[in-house]
């Protein structure tokens, strides 16, 4: 069996491509080939596993950058993927990070839930579905979105010193399609426009 096949057997994803968290301590015996050497090479972005599934890593148990556990969070196919159209990528890459103002940004899906069918299909994407974020800002957003999805509680912008938490909605969300709108990280520029209105 390949490493991809071994992990799929161990993780046992459901019909929607979602699995339990698989701890690295389980990479023993039959599954010992999955043990990490220099990172999870068989689960990287360009891997066979990542082409089929969306993959989430957790590094919270230990200090440093070591991966502690992995899970599959749905299928990652041509119809429902995180791919971004080339023309949109080109335009966003020419912009500056909306948080730090730095150049050469990463392209961020505004919707951190990634649960809008239209946005996840390349042919239907719009420029305004994305924004330029520096790696540092995008990494921070990714972590806050992860907590939001896990707890059902949105990021509170007052943590950053802003006088309001969100410009639409409340703290609790139900993982609805538009749960992200109103959050600082969904669109920092739009969030700041509402601060002006608030004043």
Structure at a glance:
The radius of gyration is 18 Å and the shape is globular. 25% of the residues lie in helices and 12% in strands.
Question: How does this model look, in words?
Answer:
The longest helix is centred in the last third of the chain and has 17 residues, at 135-151. Helices cover 25% and strands 12% of the residues. The strands form two sheets. It has a three-stranded antiparallel sheet with strand order 1-3-2. The chain is globular. The model has no long low-confidence stretch (mean pLDDT 86). The protein is built from five helices and five strands, in the order H-E-H-E-E-H-E-E-H-H. It has two domains: 3-75; 86-198, no CATH class. It is α+β, with helices and mostly antiparallel strands and 199 residues long.
List the helices and strands and how they pair.
Elements: H1 3-11, E1 22-23, H2 48-52, E2 53-58, E3 69-75, H3 86-93, E4 106-109, E5 130-133, H4 135-151, H5 188-198
* Sheet/helix structural class: alpha+beta
Quaternary structure type: single chain
Mean pLDDT rating: 86
Return Rg in Å.
18 Å
Sketch the major β-sheet.
3 strands, antiparallel
- Distance N to C terminus: 62 Å
- Please bin the fraction of helical residues: 25-40%
The poorly predicted ranges are none
In what order do the strands lie side by side in the largest sheet? 1-3-2
Number of domains: 2
> How many individual β-strands?
5
How would you spell out the order of helices and strands? HEHEEHEEHH
How many helices?
Answer: 5
Query: Judging from the principal axes of the Cα atoms, what is the shape?
Result: globular
Strand content: 5-15%
